[in-house]
Amino acid sequence: MEIKDFRKPWVYKTVSLVNWLVIPAVAFYSVFFYDWGDGYHVFTEPQRWMRRQQEAFFSLSPEQQKIVDEETKQLDNAASQKPTSAA
């Protein structure tokens, strides 16, 4: 007598897909973001590299900062010169 599996075939495909997504995600997180402690460990250099990439992505270059400063100054000047309406 053969025992029939009660699970649908899509369950196996879904579990396989989840495995292919979750395992690399956990490995990526473990290498680049997990806090392994204060001492030097095998993932110290990859984590430093990732921090440098994040800082470069989320910061402005000196030229960009200059543009932002100029625009902020212009907006401040325009706001201070805006006439107030008398009620």
UniProtKB/TrEMBL annotation:
Keywords: Membrane, Transmembrane, Transmembrane helix. It comes from Cylindrobasidium torrendii FP15055 ss-10. The keyword Membrane applies. This is Transmembrane protein. The chain crosses the membrane at residues 12-34.
